[in-house]
Amino acid sequence: MSRFEVSRRIRRYDYVSAGVDQERKDRAIEESAALIATTYGAGVIPNPGGFAGLYAPGRYVDPVLVATTDGVGTKLKLANLLGKHDTVGIDLVAMSVNDLIVEGADPLFFLDYIAMGRIDPQKVKVIISGIVEGCRIAACALLGGETAEMPGMYAADEYDLVGFALGAVERDRIVRGTKIVPGDAIIGIASSGVHSNGYSLVRKIFVEAKAMPLDARPPQLEGRTLGEVLMEPTTIYAGAIRSLIGRFRPEDEVKGIAHVTGAGIPGNLPRVLPEGVGARIRVGSWPVPPVFEIIQSAGRVEEAEMFRVFNMGIGMILIAPHALAAEMVEHLGREGLRAHVIGTTIEGPREVEFLRPPST
To answer: Structure pTM?
Structure first.
């Protein structure tokens, strides 16, 4: 039998038979185009059919560009399990934009990357609706993105999200942390819950070990299910921090800002402290959301580990002179965010020391 005769017996293949349907992907993107356009501001330069987004920042005298990238992590596993995909886009925007604003930058635009085992146009639309909402909250444009169908890389119903944000700040208004000194106030701004970190441990406890059903309604959650609370989207702090920096001078008054993500307060606060300055945090000086109590109890997690993994109710930290702390807390309250003075900077290594109330 000749090689030619063998080859004639092999069926014809195309991209669809390999698991990639370009028409389905195009349809998914087209259905979201009008929604994406609602995020456009004056800086967006229309570029229909272009291979890249165009943006003219304007209004800056001596701008420094600030770029970040992040994802949602294994919270997406929980989203798939619960069939809830409308808020993970907010998480995606928050994780990158919140990193921008700690430098004092204004978010300008956002780019997304969605990878799926099999394109589901309705799911794509729902995910993008969350990204759009996140961009609206952050007051930045959703300038572009990529949607990839990757059979074999992901299971048919699985997907991953990555976000990229670009911001700008005047060179003389960058928040660097260099003027932080011992005796400054540490202000904690409340999180909305678990945000987008620690979900591998969350799933270990509630999905693998089945310590509590996701549809359980423990009394601490006041009628909400555990799953609903775990899917609460990450707070976007951009507007409030922008307002605060506009009211108080960066470096002299807003001396440092830290986004509390993976590794919690002890892993993120030292990143903004100068050499020779540490932090003393007063445990109990802010209300810890009950979801963390549930996680700790159900998984028998040690307190130190809880603080190393989760934000424990503090999603963003500011460092400022003590004389201005009360005024800043009040200002953040007017912006719709709960804030508390949770500690002070101290002389010592760039570490976080937790001061617990005396046992009664």
So the answer is: 0.95
